[in-house]
Amino acid sequence: MKRTLGYAVIAILFFALIWVWTLEVDSSLNYPEFISGGALFFTIFFLCLFNIRKRVPFLPLWPARKWFLLHTVAGFLALSLFWLHAGIMWPNGLYVQILVFLFYLTTLSGIVGLVMEKVYPNLLTRIGLECIYERIPRDIAEIRNKAETLVFECTEKTGSDTLAQHYLETLGWFFQRPRFFINNIFGGQNAQTWVMQQCSILERFLNASERDYLDKIFALAEIKRKIDFHYSLQTMLKNWLLIHIPLAAAVMTMVVWHIIVIQVFFN
Ligand code: HEM
User: Fold this and answer.
1) Nearest CA to 174 among 202, 153, 155?
2) Domain segments of the chain: what residues?
């Protein structure tokens, strides 16, 4: 925390320095955009270096945690410098608008990724079940088989097909594959509510021995719900960089082109 605060203070001081400098350049009737633009380019370049750092982890280039903090602080610095540079949130001109749109998306994906990396591990620990991502399809198939075996057994032993009918119409859908993805990534409770609702409706139509089977199926649904939660959160954690990195690459490419155009224009 202390270190993050230290980097944040350095970033604020750096921003203040650039701001004062641009005001001075502006008052001497020169182009302050060269100052803010230069600082912005330097910051975006630094942000992209993170990718290179990750590709060569064996080089003695600061520890990964330090890079992570610096990258996060530099991300917010880049956004502030961008507003200083452009002067407005949404500039005119198609090329610049595409560039700005991509820059905003990169920043947004970075912030969303950061929040997920901070919040999700705690949520996954709290759910009280450990789960290996690659094994999830197999785990779900096993649970589904167990649930279906119970349904068969219940029909055979009790001579009633009420549980089987209901399973086919509702619970079977739940056991088929991971469900409630969107709700899970926002930490919602829809899966739990849905399962409890289905089981409590069904309970009213069952006799005592059928209810024993329903209890066992409910226990399986609870495990399945937790696996689904892991699936949703781990999918997001594994894949958000697949959005952030290409966006960052597109921004960098367009920034380089923007600088070339400006140089040509002023020469
Ligand atoms: C507030 C803004 C931003 C935040 C909060 C942010 C956050 C992050 C985080 C958390 C990571 C992954 C760290 C990890 O798990 O190892 C990351 C990676 C990265 N970000 Fe950002 N970012 C921001 C803006 C940007 C911008 C504007 C760019 C470039 C234009 C950028 C380029 C990159 C690159 C190249 C990586 C390395 C990905 C890799 O190779 O694994 N980020 N960012």
Assistant:
1) 202
2) 2-111+241-266, 133-238
